[in-house]
Amino acid sequence: MSASPGLFDEALGLADASWRPVLRRGLKAVAAADPAYLPTLAADHFLPTRGRIFAAFAQPLDAVRYVLVGEGPYPREESATGVCFMDGAVTELWSPSGLSKPVNRATSLRNFMKMLMVADGLLMPDATVGTAVADVAHRALAADSTFIRTLPELQRQLHAHGFLLLNAALVFRPSVPPVREAKAWRPFLEAVLEALASRAGHAPPTLVLWGKIAGWLDGLAAVAEFPRAVAEHPYNLSFINNREMQALFAPMHLLRAG
Q1: 6-78+158-234+242-252: which CATH number, 3.30.40.10, 3.30.230.10, 3.40.470.10, 3.30.950.30?
Q2: How far apart are CA 207 and CA 32, in angstroms?
Q3: pTM to 2 decimals?
């Protein structure tokens, strides 16, 4: 008998087959810690919709080299995709005046983009607004540009480098504080991290933790052997000039196509 409501069992269909046994163990761990949590959640309205709660696990288990953990889904239905920081309301990254309006509205994504530009030498750390960003956008939009232009391209770039894009809380509900939601999902994330730590022939992935809620994972026994890169949440302007994040992402050149 399943330890979770059918709604969540069905949602496993969006996960790669390599993950499904792990995710089922994670759901059983959530149910063991709080038997009422999953049935209550299934009866409530939550984000992401359309069965995308496990969409991040489309990245195959053995492909994971980095686990990027944010706090929770965007609190808007069109934005919450089940994949950390991938805002479903954003398509185009650039506009003639700089970053596109949807990117600028998504504060965390905007600051992540600017951090990538600094890391790639496209912006100076003390000049990350106005004409400096517009100059990069003009290069990105040029006919002979080698830059990526859309958020789905950025997601593919991250996947190609082995990123699993998770949230500490897999769901958002206006009536439940994100901290409480994340606490309920902690046993699930422990199962995920234990599976990553025990892969035969694979080194532990680097755990990239953004924000205080994600930072809770730093103390779990399952990640004792994981390399870590910890930063403030990207909605903070200081994230743009976080040197540890710049050092991590600079070699990847994520804004460059191919």
Answers
A1: 3.40.470.10
A2: 26
A3: 0.93
